[in-house]
Task: inverse folding
């Protein structure tokens, strides 16, 4: 079980690497497709097949899943720029509930914490006006 999770982290990591490398090489279709396949293939190894399906196919996350999968399909069908835009929107929609948690974690880091506190203070001062 632990080996499979490590294998999944490796697959997902390589997927992210190939996606970033594909974007850097002017949206190379092959690299983006390979990155998408590795990224999506690594998730079930990390969190399990049932939890992966439950996460992506919840009623409130169907929109994000649809945009993400449409983006993957468009990237594979030679529309990599539009595909990446749809994937990004889909991932943002899928993981928007995690952003407050991530910002709290990042605000506790020594270097980034100062920046996050400045941004949150400026947001609070705008809401008071």
Result:
């Amino acid at each position: 079980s632990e080996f499979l999770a490590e294998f999944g982290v490796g697959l997902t990591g390589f997927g992210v690497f190939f996606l970033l490398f594909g974007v850097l090489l002017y949206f190379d279709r092959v690299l983006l497709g390979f990155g998408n396949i590795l990224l999506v293939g690594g998730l079930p190894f990390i969190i399990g097949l049932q939890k992966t399906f439950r996460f992506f196919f919840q009623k409130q996350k169907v929109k994000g899943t649809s945009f993400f999968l449409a983006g993957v399909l468009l990237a594979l069908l030679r529309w990599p720029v539009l595909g990446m835009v749809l994937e990004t929107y889909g991932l943002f929609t899928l993981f928007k509930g995690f952003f407050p948690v991530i910002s709290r974690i990042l605000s506790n880091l020594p270097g980034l914490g100062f920046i996050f506190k400045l941004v949150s203070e400026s947001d609070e001062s705008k809401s008071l006006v």
About this structure: The mean pLDDT is 86. The two ends are 53 Å apart (CA to CA). The chain has one domain: 1-126. The helical segments are 2-24, 29-47, 49-56, 62-76, 80-95, 99-107, 110-128.
